[in-house]
Amino acid sequence: MAQTPKTLVNVQVFAGKDGSTAMPGEFLLTSVEIKKSINKIPRAILTFVDGGVAEHEKFAVIESGLFDQWNKVVIKAGYNNVIDKTPLFEGYIFDQDLKLGSPNKFTVTCFNQAKYLTLTSLKDVLEKKKPIEAVDFVLKNNEHKSKVKGKVKDTSKSKAEAKDQIILDPQVNCWKYILDNLSNYIAVPNDKELSIEAPDFAQTPSDFQIKYGKNLRSFEVKEASTSLRAIEIKGYDEKSPDKPLEDTKTAKQLYGSFTKYLNSDSGSVFDVNKIPEYISGTHIHTKADMENILETRKTQNLLGFKSGKIVISGSNEVELATMVEVEGLPTEYSQSYFVGGIEHKIASDWVTTLKIGLESNGLGATGSGASTGGSLGSSSSSSSGEGASASGNLTLGVVHSIHEDANGTYKIKVNIHKFGDKIVEARMVQPYAGNGLGKDAQDKGEGMLFFPNVGSEVILTPIEGDENYWVILGCLYSPVSKPSAEVKEGAAQPDEKNLHKSIVTKHFVLDFFDDDAKTRMTLASRDDGKTALNAKKYQISMDIKDKPNIQILFDKTFIKLDEEEGVMIDSAKNITLKAKDDILLDANKITIKAKADVAVDGQNVNAKAKVAFNAEGAQVAVKGKSMVNVESSGPAAVKGTPLNLG
Fold first, then answer.
1. Where is there biased composition of kind Low complexity (predicted)?
2. E strands within 50-143?
3. Topology of 390-435+451-482 in CATH?
4. Those residues with Cβ within 8 angstroms of residue 70's Cβ, 6 or more apart along the chain or in another chain
């Protein structure tokens, strides 16, 4: 049994606007409960008996004004009229509750300074910062920074590399943002200062002694030894997609240096569990991403490795995120325990409970695979800890610019409404994109090139829930941005048959009309101001149902390929046929007709008829510069009036 050498418990409470007014001795405080934990906001609950059963009995505690909302509260405790100078708790009143009964109970709920981080948010886009540096930015720039003192200790402990952009969502309060982006750090919410730090499992234990048979009241701590297993991680390097981006660490490599924190037989199970943790995702782009996730997951596993509670006689000498030793346990047990939480309950007695490690309900499923770095102790799915997560976070934005992306990923800049019109970078989804066939085709890109115009409304989603890595899925029509009237034949909306499929650019229309009776494809210009496609000045069209034909119209020049009429060319000006080799005209009948002259010019001109050859004109002249030969195999006749020979 534990000894209780300290018999009289004393509690001192200060309250008021600045927390400096001592609570009057006549106030009947029946109990004090204080809960502190890493990655959680500390809370204190004070319970009073206030007021009586008669009408004339006042509610002295409530009416004193000391415990009004937002007032500051300082709680101290000690034994035998000796009060510890260091407060058990400092914070602010956020809730009150009065229950009338026998007796009347007035409950005051307080939270420490970190609570104010839940009442503010930031909207910004940070460039070239690590996630932990973004956390530091939030601590230094939030609107309650005068009330919340906090800092990040040693950002070099983060293995993450700087991100091109980190988006601060105004819909996410600062406390939640911090938890979602801790990586391998923890939030230690001390009353005087919120400390963001990497937990140290090799630190020297505190001087406070916990001894079995003396101040140790109960001990319930267990090890999850099989949770310390190998980790396999695989990513995707978008700059070198053909090269593998992967790493494997054995349990011994990850946890072998922490043997002092383990029971003597725990190290022997490193190789027993043959199932590794497998982490993958397209958000893992670099070796730095892998190192950061490995370090985050290792920290997470160590925090969850030992769990349980150690109950001792009331004391204020133990701090969060420190190591304590317990003397008197079996020799096989490690004496070192990482303090993840502290609870004080004071009524007729004072009992302190030390929570070991990180509570499972604070661990969540986050922290090992988030592309922002992950977190330890957040329940947000936007930082999924086991690799990829289904997000569904679709949002709207307006294109700001489509200038060239210096990183070669063809990102464009978009104003996203949910971020207060902050500009973010996003990649554009294309139906088809590639670098060509074979290794020699790197500079011979293939695919479709469709980018939205500046001012277009687009719909975006974050890849695997990472709101720093967006892709544009497509564009939206609206009452302002409507489909072109040229492809709707005057209709404001598409009909149920959905006959039109069109691509419309600034100067061109490619329209497909799929009616069963009239099926048409048209490529036309948009520069003539005419709405109807068949009235366009420049167009190419194809009909395949009603009188199948292909037509080409260039202003007043018209070419038609028709199933019944054949090929017709109607030119407003000249028609020129040129060939480096032969030109052959082959038909049942060929007619050449000119309103003016017909000229045939060549090195040798041959005209041959199988039946008859007629040359007729008002005047016919046959002239040879050197010789003229007229010859017939049968009769030959030369007639004229008069006839001149010579």
1. 377-388
2. 72-79, 82-83, 89-99, 105-111, 124-129
3. OB fold (Dihydrolipoamide Acetyltransferase, E2P) (2.40.50)
4. 92, 93, 94
Q: Token digits for 21?
A: 């007014």
Contacts of 378 by beta carbon, 8 Å cutoff, 6+ apart: 39, 176, 179, 180, 182, 364, 366, 367
The runs of H, that is alpha helices, within 522-627 are none
Closest among 238, 305, 281, 306 to 374, alpha carbons compared: 281
| Domain boundaries of the chain, sorted by first residue | 9-111, 114-198, 209-358, 390-435+451-482, 498-570
Q: What's the pLDDT score for residue 441?
A: 53
Q: Which pTM was predicted? A: 0.73
For residue 47, give the nearest of 72, 85, 75, 83 by alpha carbon: 75
Cβ atoms of 144 and 119 closer than 8 Å: yes
- Give 530's contacts (C-beta < 8 A, 6+ positions apart): 536, 537
Half-sphere exposure of 282 (CA within 13 A, CB side): 13
Q: 358: how many CB neighbours lie within 10 A of its CB?
A: 28
Q: How far is CA 238 from CA 62, 153, 281, 291, 304, in A?
A: 63, 33, 12, 18, 34
Residue 4 pLDDT > 60: no
Element (H, E) at 254: helix 251-255
**Which candidate, 111, 43, 115, 39, places its Cα nearest to that of 360?**
39
CATH fold group of domain 114-198: Phage tail protein beta-alpha-beta fold (3.55.50)
In 3D space, the residue among 251, 246, 240 whose CA is nearest the CA of residue 287 turns out to be 246
> Which residue reads 């008002």 in tokens?
618
Residues 625, 623: Cα–Cα separation, whole Å: 7
**pLDDT at residue 608, rounded to an integer:** 85
Average pLDDT for 125-136: 94
Cα gap 1→160, rounded to integer Å: 49
Model confidence pLDDT, tens digit, residues 577-619: 888 999 888 888 888 888 888 888 888 888 888 888 888 888 8
**pLDDT tens per residue across span 292-328:** 999 999 999 999 999 999 999 999 999 999 999 999 9
Say if residues 366 and 376 touch (Cβ distance below 8 Å).
Answer: yes
Count CB atoms within 10 A of the CB of residue 543.
18
Instruction: Give the range among 303-307, 369-373, 557-561 with minimum mean pLDDT.
Output: 369-373
Nearest to 443 by CA among 451, 453, 434: 434
pLDDT value of position 406: 75
Going from the C-alpha of 219 to that of each of 222, 258, 322, 337, 352, the distances in angstroms are: 10, 22, 18, 12, 12
Look at the block and give the residue holding tokens 């601590």.
Answer: 139
Q: Which letter does DSSP use for residue 366 in this model?
A: B
Rounded Cα distance between 195 and 153, Å, is: 7
